[in-house]
Design goal:
homodimer; alpha+beta; Dna Ligase, domain 1; 3-stranded mixed sheet; Arc Repressor Mutant, subunit A; 137 residues; 5 helices; two-stranded antiparallel sheet; DNA-binding
DNA sequence: GTACATGCAAAGGGTTTGCAAACGG
DNA sequence: CCGTTTGCAAACCCTTTGCATGTAC
């Protein structure tokens, strides 16, 4: 219960004031294997702290995102989704359930920067999303 | 002036009622080499028809999108951007200007479906966006 | 003519913000 | 203690929608 999450550690390193609400949001994201949207984070956080407000959840997620503690994604549907920052990877979204699978392919990564270079650009960021339907065995 | 755009042709083929406003929006998109957002389409359309309303622009863009006459993109920033539908291609967005470059790489395309397959999915859609900074020569 | 499209303004959904009260270091 | 953070509600931005009017076919 009193264990510190990696996110909390990062907050101290970056001199972010560690309030109860921030600890709560940090814990929710640390415990989430999916890529929850803001409302989901809010609902999960509310189970830990019933008084937390959605405004604080929004503010905290943005704070964490700016501090590179979390990564924000936009998989369509007009709502942001978050995950703990870490190694770069791409996403495959199940069009039927919205579930997200992460994957990494070195060859693909290399191809991305090669293409940007060919077009005369230095690759700053990139995103690849595959939308698929689970194959019936 | 009386020339028919490809989009208008598609409208007739798909039995979409060809109103003045739809012709206007079609013309704007046919004449746009960039990937305008809704407000930009509205402003350009207003120069042709000063009485067109933003609601009609929204409705028409959605109609055209559903009819596969236009493609909608979300390059971040929370506003949709449109382009005339055509061959599939990916996008490189200049992070400094927002300008969009289109590109196509067959090897990359093949890799996408190969990866989806490997993960047990049938590829339904995909999107790759590279965000880059123009290299100073 | 008649079903469908338009304009207007109001409503919606996600996100941000001003302000006074609460709180972390 | 003092500056930062929070909760609340109102504001914001983009987009959609209800309704009366206008229009393509």
């Amino acid at each position: 219960m009193a264990e510190e999450t990696g996110i909390e550690k990062l907050c101290r390193e970056r001199n972010l004031r560690l309030t109860g609400q921030r600890r709560t949001v940090a814990r929710v994201l640390s415990d989430s294997a999916d890529h929850p949207d803001v409302d989901t984070v809010y609902r999960r956080a509310s189970r830990i702290d019933p008084h937390i407000s959605i405004a604080t959840v929004y503010r905290t997620l943005k704070l964490f995102e700016d501090a590179n503690v979390l990564t924000r994604h936009d998989f369509g549907g007009g709502r942001a989704r978050y995950e703990e920052a870490g190694e770069h990877h791409d996403h495959l979204i199940d069009v039927e359930t919205g579930a997200v699978k992460e994957f990494y392919d070195a060859e693909l990564e290399e191809m991305k920067s090669r293409i940007a270079e060919r077009l005369g650009f230095e690759l700053v960021d990139h995103r690849l999303e595959l939308y698929g339907r689970r194959r019936r065995s």
